[in-house]
């Protein structure tokens, strides 16, 4: 590695370490000090409540005590508890997901309904939904990938002798994809930290992540896109992990070191690269915002290539970029050829940026219809819509300059409404129903149980952010002592979180969009909470020994 490459790699590691400490500290402070939530499921106005530390801190400590107690019990009962716990958590999530399908009675609504309806029409042979003006896809062509996914599932469902709507089958598929996410992310945790205790804590966090389970009934792109993304991330990490990498905490880890002594063959590396490209490409196809994850992957691949001069990494980065950037245009072109009609370019990016600077009935920067209305009133003319949006941005910037206090408050509330909502809008996303729900679910969505759901999710979010903060603090401390930067790929998921934070500070806001970034933080939270529990357990043991000697 030449001097410039070494300096670039070291600077990048130090920069992302500083970002990790700053951002997780910011997120932890916001989550501990306040909670954002919605009470009225009709208006879905986001409210901000200042938290009582006498409740949230003991609640967070009790959750940590629960994790520590379960972990201690598992390690005492079995030398290898991960397999048993994995089966239990998968069964638990599958049962809860099935219960939501049977009793939650959720149906697609809003954009989810529009995409599903287009896919259903295409599955029945109606290609009129591919139209330059009179089509949902002409406003939002980025949804063609999810449309294709739904169409495939609907066609499969129509082969079976059942008369219920296909979206019930899609929800069953999503429950299976929850299990896929857990399995791949558990492998990611093991690959990063190589500790069974961290694996166990991850599985416990996955099993108690209620929004994660709630979203299995949300017939949209979050769950399938993240399932593909976790597979892509796992194989990317397999591709990057090398013998002689800096140890995560400067420790000797014989099992991990022995596993890496035998460098994977070129064929295996090519296989890992292929699966990485496939996973990330499908992820972008199903949810275009996952281009943020692609950018994070490309940053890591290029910097790891600069460090190691493994030219295969640069080739993998180029192939991944081409596939991820080309998959949506390819799917769109396929539909256009099939229908003999073309789609419009869609709602402009500048209108999303303008909307992200405006007030909304729900919260600052949330959807208020500006992007859709501007494009529609412009007659689907991209140039005119961009001109109107740029003017709106200019006016808003001028207003912010004249009222700096208002601007600061606007972006503070925009930030909190997204990152301090522990439910990640899971109730709002799954509120639509095809019939009356049971009293339990009525209470969960809008009754007394909703308060407990919000409270639990708030404490869970504290655990998520504080655990991530502890992990990054320990990484920074140990690497500072050793004088060596860590392998940059350890921060892959967090680089995507930083990208998402910056993107949604400027773009349209919604706490639902932050849900996937919360999942990316889970591997760090698992290790961080293990460190906290271990430190607390060690301190307790020393106290006990001290009391015995007195």
Q: Characterize the overall form.
A: globular
Q: What's the β-strand tally?
A: 2
- Widest β-sheet, arrangement of strands: 1-2
Residues in helices, as a percent range: over 70%
Largest sheet: 2 strands, antiparallel
**Poorly predicted ranges:** 246-261
Radius of gyration: 24 Å
Multimeric organization? single chain
Mean pLDDT: 90
User: In percent, how much strand structure appears in the residues?
Assistant: under 5%
> Which structural category fits the helices and strands?
mainly alpha
Q: Compute the number of structural domains.
A: 1
Tally of helical segments: 23
Brief synopsis:
With 550 residues, the chain is an all-alpha fold. It has helices at 3-33, 53-77, 82-104, 110-123, 136-139, 144-158, 166-193, 196-207, 210-214, 222-240, 254-261, 266-286, 291-308, 311-339, 349-355, 370-377, 382-402, 404-419, 426-429, 439-446, 448-482, 492-506, 511-549; strands at residues 34-38, 46-50.
């Amino acid at each position: 590695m030449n001097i410039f490459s070494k300096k670039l790699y070291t600077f990048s590691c130090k920069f992302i370490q500083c970002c990790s400490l700053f951002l997780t500290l910011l997120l932890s402070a916001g989550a501990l000090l306040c909670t954002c939530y919605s009470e009225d499921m009709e208006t879905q106005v986001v409210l901000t409540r200042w938290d009582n530390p006498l409740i949230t801190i003991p609640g967070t400590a009790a959750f940590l005590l629960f994790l520590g107690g379960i972990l201690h019990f598992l390690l005492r009962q079995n030398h290898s508890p991960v397999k048993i716990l994995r089966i239990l958590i998968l069964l638990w999530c599958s049962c809860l997901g099935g219960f939501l399908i049977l009793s939650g009675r959720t149906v697609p609504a809003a954009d989810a309904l529009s995409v599903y309806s287009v896919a259903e029409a295409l599955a029945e042979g109606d290609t009129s939904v591919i139209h330059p003006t009179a089509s949902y896809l002409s406003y939002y062509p980025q949804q063609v990938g999810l449309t294709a996914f739904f169409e495939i599932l609907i066609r499969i469902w129509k082969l079976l002798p059942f008369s219920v709507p296909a979206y019930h089958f899609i929800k069953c598929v999503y429950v299976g994809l929850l299990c896929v996410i857990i399995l791949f992310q558990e492998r990611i945790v093991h690959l990063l930290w190589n500790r069974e205790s961290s694996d166990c804590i991850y599985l416990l966090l996955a099993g108690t992540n209620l929004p994660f389970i709630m979203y299995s009934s949300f017939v949209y792109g979050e769950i399938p896109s993240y399932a593909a993304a976790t597979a892509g991330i796992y194989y990317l990490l397999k591709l990057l992990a090398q013998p002689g990498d800096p140890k995560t905490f400067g420790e000797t880890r014989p099992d991990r070191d022995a596993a890496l002594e035998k460098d994977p063959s070129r064929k295996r590396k090519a296989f890992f690269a292929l699966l990485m490209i496939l996973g990330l490409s499908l992820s972008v196809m199903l949810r275009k915002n996952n281009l943020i994850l692609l950018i994070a992957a490309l940053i890591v691949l290029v910097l790891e290539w600069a460090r190691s001069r493994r030219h295969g990494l640069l080739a993998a980065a180029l192939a991944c970029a081409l596939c991820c950037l080309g998959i949506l245009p390819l799917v769109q072109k396929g539909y256009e050829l099939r229908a003999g009609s073309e789609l419009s370019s869609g709602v402009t990016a500048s209108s999303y940026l303008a909307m992200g600077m405006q007030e909304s009935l729900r919260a600052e920067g949330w959807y208020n219809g500006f992007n859709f209305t501007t494009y529609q009133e412009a007659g689907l003319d991209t140039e005119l819509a961009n001109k109107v949006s740029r003017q709106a941005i200019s006016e808003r910037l001028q207003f912010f300059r004249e009222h700096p206090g208002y601007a600061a408050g606007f972006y503070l509330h925009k930030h909190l409404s997204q990152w301090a909502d522990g439910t990640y809008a899971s109730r709002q996303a799954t509120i639509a129903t095809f019939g009356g729900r049971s009293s339990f679910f009525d209470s969960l969505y809008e009754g007394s149980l909703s308060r407990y759901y919000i409270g639990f999710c708030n404490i869970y979010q504290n655990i998520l952010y504080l655990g991530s903060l502890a992990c990054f603090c320990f990484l920074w401390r140990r690497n500072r002592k050793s004088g060596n930067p860590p392998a940059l790929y350890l921060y892959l998921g967090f680089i995507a979180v930083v990208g998402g934070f910056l993107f949604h500070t400027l773009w349209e806001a919604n706490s639902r969009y932050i849900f996937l970034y919360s999942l990316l933080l889970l591997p760090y939270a698992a290790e961080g909470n293990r460190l906290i529990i271990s430190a607390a357990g060690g301190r307790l043991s020393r106290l006990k020994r001290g009391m015995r000697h007195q």
